[in-house]
Amino acid sequence: MRLTRFFLPVLRETPEEARIVSHQLMLRAGMVKQASAGIYSWLPLGYRVLKKIEQIVREEQNRAGAIEVLMPTIQSADLWRQSGRYDDYGKEMLRIKDRHDRDMLYGPTNEELITEIFRDGVKSYKDLPRNLYHIQWKFRDEVRPRFGVMRGREFLMKDAYSFDLTPEESRKSYNRMFVSYLRTFARLGLRSIPMAADTGPIGGDLSHEFIILAETGESQVYCHTDLIETAVPGRDVDFDGDLEPIIKQWTSKYAATDEKHDAARFAADVPADKQVSARGIEVGHIFHFGTKYSEPMGCKVQGPDGKLVAVQMGSYGVGVSRLVGAVIEASHDEAGCVWPVPVAPFEVGLVNLKAGDKDTDAVSGAIYEKLNNAGIDVLYDDTDERAGAKFATMDLIGLPYQIVVGPRGAKSGEVEIKTRKSGAKESLPTDAGIAKLIDLVKKGRDLA
Ligand code: 5CA
């Protein structure tokens, strides 16, 4: 992509309303624009990150055996009356009337709708287990939308729903999502910490939040240092096998906890030099709730003995749009974002320091073509801005690697490669520079 043809409305000043760094940087880097309180338009740069995160979430759901569907954003209130949640959900639910005066709502989550779909589509235990998911916008009329996309009113969520015959089988489905989440967040360049959690309005008896440690997190969490170092399951993990040993590793007596739960027990059990107390951002939340929805909504299958049984269910959410902010919180410096390769809006920034100059244009154009042909996502700064402004913008938008072509190098056949994260710079012959970049980017794409 040539910057002269792109839409990148960067701001030089930090907008006053933004209180945390991810919100500030997302506005400054022209990633999002607020449309109204807690509701954002995704501009091209931000949208590219959102799509990359969404795709990684999707790949890991598929790997764990979940099947993608797409349910609507608008739902009928009647469905929520069947589960009893229409009145319970309160003011967070955006209620709408259609032209026939029917009660509709903008879905804050989809337990009811998926239960109806499954109920009408499946009859026998032989159709179990199944896990259906979608990646769709949600609306929650939060009292205090804040921190940009981190706590929005409209936000993109991946929500998966598992259906099983028995609680034991359902536990296996829960475990599959648990392991899948560890992998998903690791692939985004994040270290996630699972933490036993309350179930709130979703309900149920078993639940974990997945927390990213970051200074601006909304909750105080405590965990054992070992948890931060535990190896994440590799891509060869067998989702049909026994995942209990992996789950045990992550939910032992050293399991993470927070103030609401057993912070005191944690303080007594875990050696002082192994305790980590930090702020955390919740990027995922999984629930097992048995027959809470299937029973009232009549989602039953015929068991092996011919009797009808309500199916066992769980639901599994990932805050896809929140993750864009969470990655920035976890990875940035004074100059701007520092994207991990797998989620970077572009993998390489190509800077032509003297656009309009015959030599730098020729060399930059050739590099642009070679990188594109190698399948690298390149943003080519071919504008006539001065060098200082170009470097500032590149650092602000935080592409993992930069390749800089100046008039002198263009003549002598050298380019400069910069690694955004370390700031390390290296001058190399042009072709060697290109080869090195391709190698670095390809190595950086797979983090787990
Ligand atoms: N039905 C269940 C699981 S599918 C559910 O709705 N869970 S949830 O309420 O915990 O939401 C799932 C994830 O969505 C959260 O972990 C969080 O990462 C994200 N999320 C929730 N509320 C917001 C919000 N207001 N803004 C941005 N992301 C949010």
Rounded to an integer in angstroms, the radius of gyration calculated over CA atoms is: 24 Å
Q: What's the average pLDDT?
A: 95
* Structural class by sheet pairing and helices: alpha+beta
Say how many strands there are. Answer: 23
In this structure, how is the largest beta sheet organized? 9 strands, mixed
The CATH architecture classification of the largest domain is 2-Layer Sandwich
Distance between the termini: 28 Å
The helical percent reads 25-40%
CATH class of the largest domain: Alpha Beta
What portion of the residues fall into strands of 2 or more residues?
A: 25-35%
Task: Give the CA-based shape.
Answer: globular
Bound ligand species: 5'-O-(N-(L-cysteinyl)-sulfamoyl)adenosine
Number of domains: 2
Give the CATH topology of the largest domain. Answer: BirA Bifunctional Protein, domain 2
Instruction: State the fourth-level CATH superfamily of the largest domain.
Output: Bira Bifunctional Protein, Domain 2
